[in-house]
Amino acid sequence: MSSRTVIRGGLVITASDEIHADVLIEDGRIAALAASGTPAAQSFTADRTIDATGKYVIPGGVDAHTHMELPFGGTFASDTFETGTRAAAWGGTTTIVDFAVQSVGHSLREGLDAWHAKAEGNCAIDYAFHMIVSDVNQETLKEMDLLVEEGVTSFKQFMAYPGVFYSDDGQILRAMQRSAENGGLIMMHAENGIAIDVLVEQALARGETDPRYHGEVRKALLEAEATHRAIKLAQVAGAPLYVVHVSAMEAVAELARARDEGLNVFGETCPQYLFLSTDNLAEPDFEGSKYVCSTPLRPKEHQAKLWQGLRTNDLQVVSTDHCPFCFVGQKELGRGDFSKIPNGLPGVENRMDLLHQAVVDGHISRRRWIEIACASPARMFGMYPKKGTIAPGADADIVIYDPNAEQVLSVDTHHMNVDYSAYEGKRITGQVETVLSRGEVVITEREYTGHAGHGVYTPRSTCQYLN
Q1: pLDDT of residue 196
Q2: d(CA 405, CA 402)
Q3: H-type helices in 72-158, by residue range?
Q4: How far is 402 from 53, CA to CA, in rounded Å?
Q5: How many CB atoms lie within 10 A of CB 320?
Q6: Of 360, 432, 333, residue with least CA distance to 88
Q7: How many helices (H) does the chain have, and how many strands (E)?
Q8: Which residue, 36, 81, 167, 451, has fewest beta-carbon neighbours within 10 Å?
Q9: SS3 237
Q10: CB-based contacts of 19: which residues, under 8 Å, 6+ apart?
Q11: What is the Cβ-side half-sphere exposure of residue 22, based on CA atoms within 13 angstroms?
């Protein structure tokens, strides 16, 4: 049976336009748009009408950096694909790109199959995968070609975490050379992990064990140095590069310089670096452990440079790096030794709201909000215009957003499976009201009406910013 929905009277905002328009949805896709009140709009007929008067009608968010059920530091991220995608929907995100993990000694295929098994039938919204490459060898390089062909078109490498995910410069160069040939995009965790491990060892030997030292040993200069090195390796390989979770102004400067030289170098940052700081890491009574993530939170003065980078497009994407660990029983593994605190923050539910607050605060425009949260991540990872916009033919992933509603972020009201909020008590203007995923209403006027298994796996084309 064909189903038709019309959304009437809202302000449709995309990365390029703002228009008071009615949106016609047919069989899970956007069929047409017409200016509200015109004969064309009045001709839309539907089984269901959603009144968006006084609200924004925006594309569903695309969070291109999540870690559901990630094994880390002897434990697992506390959100499953079921709880994590449900929380994403509550926050107005309708597509996630999660990271499948290759373990050392195993194939990419084994890692990818394991993540498919975790996600299939469990997701409330659509999902795709990047591939973490931990073991570069001839077989791995051949597998990269096969994965690109089947829609896993991005590969993450780590200059950090020696002994876990770490790749040396030679392995990175080989993977970049391969991606230059097969069209894949290398995503880089850019921190000098070898040097950081020395500083960790020295800090612990001095008795500096509190969470705030996590930020002090993972120095901004070591993020900048690794960013610079990754850019140069990519330049040698003739490959594009996407640097994840940029937190330091010195790293932004490296990206800006590379882009000024015309290189295909891209960067993302995350809400935690825009709204939180080392002040949080220094909170007493081990509360600072809640804010341990890598790259780490930086002193507040870095925030202005990150906002500037988002305005000048030296940073293109805001993702969450959602990787939650409960304070009780998980973060507490690092009491007495900050290096044992599982690295990661919850945030998949908060991103769209925090970025709307940035609009309210004057950091970015409304269209830039949609660009960095929806359109750019969809383009960067080969899903546009199926995802990331409101246009005929696109998936009907749509959020009705109330720009005037007020809310207070809190563990008491969020839906992520974690026992604290990184933004506890923060007042926000703007709130998700209704969310459609491929035309199905998964949040209906602040009630969850979706279900596990609605979300489907989404193969991706290669990066759409490349010639």
Answers
A1: 98
A2: 6
A3: 81-90, 108-119, 138-149
A4: 10
A5: 29
A6: 432
A7: 15, 18
A8: 451
A9: helix
A10: 11, 12, 33, 35
A11: 23
What is the spatial distance between Cα 132 and Cα 402, in angstroms, rounded to a whole number? Answer: 37
Residue (of 292, 344, 4) closest to 23 by Cα position: 4
The pLDDT assigned to 171 comes to 98
The distance from CA 188 to its chain's CA centroid, rounded to whole angstroms, is 14
Cα separation, 231 vs 185, whole angstroms: 13
Provide φ and ψ at 33, rounded to 5°. Answer: -130, 145
Contacts of 417 (CB under 8 A, 6+ apart): 78, 79, 80, 83, 84, 87, 324
Which pLDDT does position 2 carry in this prediction?
A: 72
Q: How far apart are CA 267 and CA 242, in angstroms?
A: 5
Confirm if 25 and 34 have CB atoms less than 8 A apart: no
Q: How many residues does the chain have?
A: 467
The CB density around residue 381, as the number of other CB atoms within 10 Å, is 29
In this structure, is the dihedral angle defined by the CA atoms of residues 272, 274, 276 and 279, taken in order, positive or negative? positive
325, 329, 335, 339 alpha-carbon torsion, rounded to 10°: -40
> Tokens 């409330």 identify what position?
124
Q: Kindly give, in sequence order, each residue whose CB lies less than 8 Å from that of residue 188, ignoring residues fewer than 6 positions away.
A: 156, 157, 158, 159, 172, 226, 227, 230, 241, 242, 243, 244
Percent of the chain that is helix, strand, coil (3-state, to 5): 35, 25, 40
For residue 357, what is the enclosing H or E element? helix 351-360
> What pairing do the DSSP bridges indicate for beta strands 265-269 and 241-243?
parallel
Contact 377, 319 (CB under 8 A): yes
Regions of the chain short of the pLDDT cut 50: none
Q: How far apart are CA 62 and CA 199, in angstroms?
A: 36
* Bridge partners, 443 (sequence order): 435, 448
pTM over 0.85: yes
Three-state secondary structure call for residue 18? strand
Measured CA to CA, the distance from residue 150 to residue 373 in angstroms comes to 25
Euclidean distance between CA atoms 338 and 4, whole angstroms = 54
Question: Kind and range of the H or E element at 244?
Answer: none
Give the pairing type, strands 29-35 and 18-26. Answer: antiparallel
Q: What is the pLDDT of residue 1?
A: 60
Alpha-carbon torsion (36, 37, 41, 42), positive or negative: positive
**CB within 8 Å of 421: residues ≥ 6 apart:** 346, 350, 409, 410, 411, 414
Q: DSSP letters along 183-217, please?
A: --EEEEE---HHHHHHHHHHHHHTT--STHHHHHH
